[in-house]
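Exam prep: given the inputs below (a chain plus 6-AZA uridine 5'-monophosphate), describe the expected output before reading on.
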Amino acid sequence: ASKSTLPYHIRAASHQHPVAQKLFRIAEQKKSNLIISADFSDTDGLLNCADELGPYIAVFKTHVDIIHDFGEKTVVGLKKLAAKHNFMIFEDRKFVDIGSTVQKQYHGGALRISEWADIVNVSPLGGGGVVEALEQVISNETFPYRDERAVLLLAEMTTAGSLATGQYTQKCIDIAKQSSAVIGFVATGGLGTVNPDLNTSAQEDFLIFTTGVNSCQSGNILGQQYQTPEAAVKGGSDFIIVGRGIYTSENRVETAKQYQREGWNAYEARIAS
Ligand code: UP6
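Solution:
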C-alpha cells in the first residue's frame, strides 16, 4: 500500500501535482528531506536562518503570525532566498475555520500567505468545506499562482492528549482523496505506512510531513513529544520537520547538516528495504 519505499525521483516523475513533483526533485538534488521549522519572531532572524540553512533543507517552514515586524521585507526576502537556495516554503498556518473566512485568511489579508507560501496546512475539524474553499482559490483562473500552491491536512498532532486521532485522522484521509489541491499530511510516520487506506491506487501518492523530530529530546516541553529522524523516516515520514533541535543548538549549520544526513541515511535505508 505504501509509496514510501520508492525513491523520490520516481515519485517526482509519477506524481500528478506540480508542487509535489518540484519538492521531490529538490529533495533528490539536495539529498535532503529536512524541513527547518523557523519559529522566529523577527524578520531579520527569519531571513538569516533561511540564508544560513537554505543549502541543507528541502523546505523552510514558517509561522509568520509570530513575526512582530512582518511586511514587505519579509515577503521579498523569503521569496529571494527560496530561489537562491532552491527550497520551498511551507506556512504552518493550520487554517481551521469556515471556508469563506479561510479564503480571506489565505489570499490577501495582512499576511499575504498565497503570495509566498508554496504549501499551507489545514485542519478539517469543521469538515471538508474548508479544503474545498482553498481549492477554489488555488484553481481559480485569476489566481496568479495556479499549479504552484498545494495543501497539507493536519491529520495528527504531536502533543500529549491530542484529539487528532482515530475518526478525525481517517476523515482527513477521505477528504484528501477528494481534493486535487491536497498533496499530503502533517502526521507521524506511521500514517504513511500503517494506514491501509492510504496510497492504495497507482495514482495516489500522499506525502507525509512529520513534526516533533529531535535527536536528543524525548519531549514534554508543554506537552510536545519527539521522535528521532531515523524513527520518523523508518516509520514512513517523507519529510522531517525540526525546529528547536536545530535553531537553539550552538552551531546550527553543523546541526542542520547532521539532521540532513540522518534523515537522508534513514531514507536510503528505507528505499533499500
Ligand atoms: N507542530 C508541532 N506538532 C504538531 C503540529 N505542528 O510541533 O502536531 C509545529 C509547531 C512548531 C514545530 O508549531 O512550529 O512544529 C515544532 O517545533 P520544535 O521542533 O521546536 O518542537
